[in-house]
UniProtKB/TrEMBL annotation:
Main location: membrane
GO biological process, one term: phosphate ion transport
Location of the Histidine kinase domain: 231-447
SUPFAM superfamilies linked to this entry: ATPase domain of HSP90 chaperone/DNA topoisomerase II/histidine kinase (SSF55874), Homodimeric domain of signal transducing histidine kinase (SSF47384)
Highest taxon, organism lineage: Bacteria
Name this protein carries in UniProt: Phosphate regulon sensor protein PhoR
Length: 460
C-alpha cells in the first residue's frame, strides 16, 4: 500500500492554501518587490544613483524568481516523488497544488491497484477456469483452474487460444459467439470422459474473456435421464399395444353391459393418452440425439401451410372455430420438413384445444427481409404472464386439470423448442388471460429461401 511522504512546511497549513485566493500568494511577491524597491531607492538616493538603485533592486527580485523557478524545475525533473521545496508566493502555491494533486492521484492509483489485486486474487481462487485473450486472440492471463481444466501451461502465454483448444466445435463457436449465447459443451482434452462448458464474452475491440467449468456430472446425469426415458418409452410400447388391442376388442362387443362399456371407454381413452405420451417422449429423445443431422431441405411454405390448414380443419370439427390462413411471404424455409411440420402442428392444435368453442384461430407465414415468422393467433383462454418463461419445460402445465381434460402430454412445447433450436429459430409468446395468445416462431435470414431471387439469378 502507498506510504505517505513527509509533509513539508508549505503543505502543513493546507486549509489556508486550499481556501485562499491566488491574490493572497501574489501579495507576498508584491510585498517583497516593494520592499526591495524601497531599499534600493533609498540607497540610490544616498549615493546619487536613484534609478540604478531601483534596477539593482528589481534585478535582485528577478534573481529570487529565477531561483524559485530553478527549484521548481529541479523538483519536477529529478525528485517528483519527494516533498517539494518550501517556497513562498505564487511559486509556493503552484508547488502546493501540484503536490496535492500528485498525492491524490497516488491515493487513487493505490486504491485501484489494491482493487485489481483483490479481483485477481478472487479469480485465482475460482474453481471455474478464466482466460483473457488480447485482440489477436493470444493468451494474456489465466487462473490455476484453467491449467487443470484446459491444460494451459506457463509456456502458452502469448499463444493463440485456438492452437490450444482445437476442437472444431469450439473453433466454430469462437468465430460465431452470437449463435450460441449459452456457450458450448466440449469434451475435455485433459481428462478422458470429462466435459467442459465454455462461455466466451467479447470486450474491448476483439479481446475475449473465457469462462469454463466442469459439467461432467451434469452431463452424466442428463445422459442417464435420456437413456432412462428412451428405454422406458420403448418398454412401454409393447404392453400398451397389447392393452389397447384387448380394450378395443371388448369395447366393440355389441352385447357388452353398459356399465362395463363406460369403463372400457375410459380405459381406451387413457391408453390412447399413454400412447401419445410415449410417442412424444420417443420423439423428444430422437430430437435430442439428432442435433448433428443436417437440416437443409427446401420446404415449400405455401404447400406446407395449406397442408397444416387442412389438418387443422379436420381437428377443428369438434370445436367449431373459425380458422384463417394468412400467407404474405414468398420465402420458403430451409430445414427438416417433418420436424417443422410436427412443431407447427403442436402450436396449431394447442391453439384449437385451449380456445373455447366458436373462437378464431389464425395461422400465418410472413417475412420482413431479415426474419421469417410462423404465427398462430387465437382468441382463447390466454396465459398468465408469470407462466410464460416456463412454457417450454417438459411436463410444465399452466392448468393441470384443463390439460387432463384436453388430453395433453405436457411435452408439445418442449418438442417445439428442440425443433426450433436445431433450426436456429426461437419462440416468442404474447398472451393475456381471457384475451387470447399469439405464438410466433422467428427464423433467421439464413433459413429463408426465396425461389424468385434464385430464378432471377439463374436467368442472369
Amino acid at each position: 500500500m502507498y506510504e505517505p511522504y513527509p509533509t513539508p512546511d508549505l503543505a502543513r497549513d493546507h486549509k489556508k492554501f486550499r481556501y485562499s485566493s491566488l491574490w493572497t500568494f501574489a501579495k507576498q511577491d508584491l510585498r517583497l518587490l516593494v520592499f526591495l524597491l524601497v531599499i534600493g531607492g533609498f540607497i540610490g538616493l544616498g549615493v546619487g544613483y536613484f534609478w540604478v538603485g531601483l534596477c539593482i533592486a528589481f534585478s535582485i527580485f528577478f534573481a529570487f524568481q529565477l531561483r524559485s523557478l530553478y527549484l521548481v524545475n529541479e523538483w519536477i525533473s529529478n525528485r517528483p516523488y519527494e516533498a517539494p521545496p518550501n517556497l513562498d508566493g505564487i511559486w509556493g502555491a503552484l508547488l502546493f497544488n501540484v503536490y496535492r494533486a500528485q498525492r491524490q492521484e497516488r491515493v487513487v492509483q493505490a486504491e485501484m491497484v489494491g482493487l485489481i489485486d483483490r479481483a485477481q486474487s478472487s479469480l485465482v481462487a475460482l474453481a471455474e477456469a478464466v482466460v483473457l485473450t488480447d485482440e489477436l486472440h493470444q493468451i494474456e492471463w489465466w487462473n490455476p483452474a484453467a491449467e487443470k481444466l484446459l491444460g494451459i501451461q506457463p509456456l502458452d502465454r502469448g499463444r493463440n487460444l485456438l492452437t490450444i483448444i482445437r476442437q472444431p466445435s469450439f473453433i466454430d463457436y469462437f468465430n460465431h459467439i452470437d449463435k450460441s449465447p449459452d456457450g458450448i459443451k466440449i469434451k475435455s482434452s485433459v481428462f478422458e470422459e470429462h466435459y467442459v462448458q465454455i462461455k466466451l464474452t467479447r470486450f474491448g475491440s476483439e479481446s475475449r474473456l473465457l469462462l469454463a467449468y466442469d459439467v461432467t456430472r451434469i452431463h452424466n446425469l442428463e445422459q442417464m435421464r435420456k437413456d432412462f426415458v428412451d428405454n422406458i418409452s420403448h418398454e412401454l410400447r409393447t404392453p400398451l399395444t397389447v392393452l389397447s388391442g384387448y380394450i378395443e376388442t371388448f369395447t366393440d362387443q355389441e352385447d357388452l353391459n353398459p356399465r362395463w362399456k363406460r369403463a372400457f371407454d375410459q380405459m381406451h381413452s387413457q391408453t390412447r393418452r399413454m400412447n401419445a405420451l410415449v410417442n412424444d417422449l420417443l420423439l423428444l429423445s430422437r430430437l435430442e440425439g439428432n442435433k448433428q443431422i443436417a437440416k437443409n431441405q427446401i420446404i415449400e411454405m405455401p404447400s406446407l401451410m395449406n397442408q397444416l390448414f387442412d389438418d387443422a380443419q379436420a381437428y377443428n370439427v369438434d370445436y367449431g372455430h373459425t380458422l384463417n390462413l394468412d400467407i404474405d411471404s414468398h420465402c420458403d424455409l430451409i430445414g427438416s420438413d417433418t420436424e417443422l411440420a410436427s412443431a407447427f402442428s403442436n402450436l396449431i392444435t394447442n391453439a384449437i384445444k385451449y380456445t373455447p368453442k366458436g373462437g378464431t384461430v389464425t395461422i400465418g407465414w410472413h417475412d420482413d427481409g431479415e426474419h421469417g415468422y410462423f404465427t398462430v393467433q387465437d382468441t382463447g383462454i390466454g396465459i398468465d404472464p408469470k407462466h410464460l418463461p416456463r412454457l417450454t419445460e417438459r411436463f410444465y402445465r399452466v392448468d393441470s386439470a384443463r390439460s387432463r381434460q384436453t388430453g395433453g402430454t405436457g411435452l408439445g412445447l418442449a418438442i417445439v423448442k428442440h425443433v426450433l433450436m436445431q433450426h436456429a429459430a426461437y419462440l416468442e409468446v404474447e398472451s393475456k388471460e381471457n384475451q387470447g395468445s399469439t405464438f410466433k416462431v422467428v427464423f433467421p435470414k439464413e433459413r429463408l429461401y426465396n425461389p424468385d431471387e434464385s430464378l432471377n439469378s439463374f436467368e442472369l
